[in-house]
Amino acid sequence: MIQGERNLYSARDGPSSSALETAAHCPDCHLRGAEFCEAICGEGASGAFPPPVRQYRKGRLILERGAPVGFLGVIRRGYACCAKMRVDGKRVLFGLAVPGDIVGGFPDQRSACDVEALTDLEFCIYEAPLLRRQLAGNARFRKMLLREIQSQHDRVLGGIWRYGTLSSRERIIVFLVMATEFLPTEPQPDGSLDLTMKIERRDWADLTNTALETISRTLRYLEEKALVTSLAQYRFRIHDLDRLALLAGVEPPRREVFAAERSESPCPPAGAKNSGWR
Questions:
Q1: Region Disordered: start and end of each range (predicted)?
Q2: CA diameter of the chain
Q3: Residues 41-100: pLDDT tens digits?
Q4: For 143, 200, 208, 262, which has the most beta carbons within 10 A of its beta carbon?
Q5: How far is 148 from 182, CA to CA, in rounded Å?
């Protein structure tokens, strides 16, 4: 579980960019970020590859609100999220970042929010000097960067819409439905789908602006309706994904996602030297 605000590590305690290096161009990586990385490598920029890889343990603070960003990264494994504290002390999570998404920002940009690791996290990192060169002379990189920013911004707007129009139960169900697009899944012979969701219940509640008790009640309700069965703490069997989406009033998710995007470790660094988690 992510720690309380006062117990979070400072961004100054994060690892240096020399923590880990990949051995090649990650040719087997099927994440959306692979194309983004290739936009840098394809221009032959010196120092673009192998990119350093940063690792954070679950609960660590990646970026501190108001602090200079200084890098842009592509998530290889794990999940991160933006976080803000309301005046009443309630923690609000939004902008869930999944494998293939970018974290960080432009050179000299300051972080608009805290960015936390919801799970153990690993991302390829590109430092400010390289970003400045690419922004100045690589049109493909600029185009793809704007496209990624727009995609993540659209997801944030979708989250705002859900906060404002859906009930707490519907928000929890929608999160389950959407999770099948980016979390590990395993199809079953009877047509059901096993979902592994290693996101803590408290974080699930904060992402959907609900309470832990509401999540428990909703899961019991879905089990009574024979729609979802809790197999273990982090594992659920969804018996009918289309019915589940209909119950929350949303479209069923796309199913043409690469299997690697939903694996536990979609892009392990080939031949990399592991310097340990931070």
A1: 258-278
A2: 59
A3: 655 444 455 678 889 999 899 999 888 888 888 888 889 988 888 788 777 788 788 888
A4: 208
A5: 16
CATH level 2 (architecture), domain 167-262: Orthogonal Bundle (1.10)
The number of beta carbons lying within 10 Å of the beta carbon of residue 121 is 27
CA 136/CA 192 separation, integer angstroms: 49
Instruction: For residue 264, give the amino acid letter.
Output: E
Distance CA 32, CA 41 (A): 15
pLDDT digits (tens, 9 = 90+) for 207-220: 888 899 999 999 99
- Burial (CB < 10 A; 0-12, 13-18, 19+), residue 198, is middle
Q: Is 59 left (phi over 0), alpha (psi -120 to 50) or beta?
A: left
Question: What is the architecture of the domain spanning 5-162?
Answer: Sandwich (2.60)
Are 229 and 149 in contact, with CB atoms under 8 Å apart?
no
